[in-house]
Amino acid sequence: MSLADLSLVDLIGALVSFGLTLMVFSYVFGDNALFRLAIHLFIGVSAGYAAIVAFYNVVWPQLLIPLVFGPQAERLYVLVPLVLAGLLFFKVTPRFSALGNPTAAYLVGVGMASAVGGAVVGTIYPQVFASANLFDLQAAPQAGRLLYFVKSVAILLGTLTTLIYFYFGVQKSPGGAPEKGWIGPLTWIGQVFIAITFGAIFAGVYSAALMAFIERVYFIGDILLPLIFTP
Amino acid sequence: MGEIRCPMCGKPNPDELDVCQYCEARLKPLIGPFEPADTHEPGEGKGDSVTDWLDSLREHEGGELFEAEEEISEGEEGADESPEWPAEVASEEAGIPDWLAGLGKSLQEEGETLPEAEVGAEQDAGPFRMGDLGEAEKAGEEQDFWTAIAPQEESEPAEQLPSSGEEIPDWLQGFGESEPAAQVESDQVAQTEPGEVPDWLAELEETAGLETSTDALEVEPELEEIDWEALQPDQVDLEAEQESPPVSEDLPAAAPFTLDEEEAGLEIGEMPEWLAEVSEESSAEEAPLLEEVDASLTPAELPGWLEAMRPVETAAPVAPFIEESEGIESRGPLAGLRGVLPIEPEITHLEKPTAYAIKLQISDNEREHASLFEELVLKEGVPAPVEKGIAISPQNILRVVIFLLLFLAVGWPIYIGSQSVDLPLPSREVNQTSQLIDSVMVSEPVLLAVDYEPGFSGEMDAASASIVDHLMIRGAYLALVSTTPTGPAQAERLIKTVNNTAGHAYLDASQYANFGYVSGGPAGLLSFAQAPRGVIRYGLNGEPVWEAAPLADIQTLADFAYIVVITDRPETARVWIEQVQPTLRDTEMILVVSAQAEPLVRPYYEGLPQQVGGLVTGVAGGAAYENGMPRTILARKYWDAFSYGLTLAVIFILAGSIFNTLAGILAKRKYTFKDQK
Predict the structure, then answer these.
(1) pLDDT of residue B214
(2) Is A61 on the interface with B (CB under 8 A)?
(3) Which of A121, B355, B458, B462 shows the smallest number of beta carbons within 10 Å?
């Protein structure tokens, strides 16, 4: 797609994106005003866009429209969140911030209940069961059952040694001696698994960053190459 | 071994002592040889006329003292010829003891004016004599010495009275005016004829305790032969004391000094009421006289023993301390008692509670830590200053070099349009994902959650484009939703990109619906999973989203054919798995995640039973998915650049590791070499 194919809005957007991309790339020469300007613009635009989306996607359709155009029962129903939301505004002033505590308590309570319940049901129990089922050889594929067994042992070893490292291997005080005896080698194995995990995460982070860089270089190429090679 | 009677307490002491063993008062004067005045046995009569220590004093200093006293009384300047301290003593006696003089005179007047019938009664309470101290002590009465000796000192001003024709000082006249009886006596003194017993001697006799009636007092024959005009008063006094028999033997025994009820109730340091009145009256008259005398005399220190003889009020001007708590009861059966029930006022006394400062009491160490913490918090909101000039350092140069190399490695394949690098083979999870999407029926609703930030759009677009393209190929009805505010826009951009790249014509409302933003985090997502119609009513374009035909039967998220979650963060993937997956029943969830989230998301796919039906991770997963598709979209376009860039990064990492290892070894050898030297 060349610049000529773009509409005026897309063209302006493409030029702004090009300029901001170069400003971000200027960081290679060190921290400078252009880089900071680009960062501040990105933060400001993101916040403003989030506010607009929250209003038009949450407040307007779920609160104001039912309150204004909805039936009587729906009006009474949305009156509760309206009052709670209004009380939340008192958090702005320290003098009346206590009036917003019920709303904040409701939000925190519901959020924590959802998070804890979801963690128990969605992560802890299923992962415990999955760890226990690793050695169910009947569920393993017929081909490569040995490899499946080795893999299961590795997962079990990694899980146990990682837990042992965090529980026994961490020094209780700065400069203190770690656990000795048979716990020491296990914690060392746990450290190996943790190092591999962090290496994989770092590779993923680098991969994501490299992909973002490639995408921007590709975008610059899309902008510059037609300008350079267009007769 | 003789005894010395203490002038203060009157108790006998051994004569070798200088200080009274009872009251620690000085027994021997500091000036001049001291002759124990009371070394003779009691009853010899010498000490009965005047105090013994005063006699000894007069033997040595008396003449000059009387001269000074007379000169002072006449207002002349003859005090220069006498020694200083007697003159000062005389001046003090002439000035200070006015209250005492007035008291003595008043007592004399009372003695003279009282009827004879009352004189006998007064003998019981007559003036105190030094010789009477022993008797008083024998009587067991504890008396203040100065309270008792006050009348005796009053006799000294009386001795200064002119025998005849001399003018009375103004201060004395004023005092006499205040008491008419004293004026009568002064007139009588002025009318005394020569040859008669001088008034001052008579007064001395009287003030010395010879409070007797005029009938009982008979002048001795030896006294009549004395030339009173030629004798000095002290000589007369001393000679009379030495040559004449003890007066006390001839005179009727003086009644022991007794105190009336009022005086007996007084404590040490307290002044009797009558004495207080006299002192108050004379205090006003003392001031000008003191000024006059002080102007003519130079101040000097009093001898210790004389200092000790000063009135109690002068020696101890501070009133005795009485605790406020020991107040006198004014009510009840204990009224009038002091120091009883001290707890009552403390109980009944209502006072405002003590105000404590609300300022936090902290130590300096805590204050320092608080200031450090406050400084750290404030620094968080202050941007670091931008360096004005970009320093050219090896690190900056290395950074620019790495950037240029990476830019060339990435840009060159893009510039030439290279697609020489093979795409990765589809993995098990990619194949499983592809199989799931292959089972999607036309117009079957698929929830597509686009939950990644714009910064990760390059990776996530490449990873998910082939899947979205596959869904479009299958003709699925896409319901776009997001739990991040920027997600709806990213979803629109993804649809547009796939349309443009793969040649689709997916249109809003007919083939897909953008539900927009689901607020509330995990709680909102759980609510959306259980009742999506209650959470989402209108789409991003403001139109009702549930009116579309593919969504007519949707009541929960389990009614969707598949749930495809595209996210760059493992936390978001975990929330979707925890809140939504348990409600899906038979509906499979497919995750398309960033490469950085794969280590934390993969256990949900690897576990038994699987919580995630399909998994595609990063550009590699997208490229592998494209490899299994009949056409390529974004992953193929980026794959060469991604491969070269990743290879160059590996080279950089290895080179940096080798360089750091060699640098460490060289540094270690260098330090070892220095240590060996």
Answers:
(1) 44
(2) yes
(3) B355
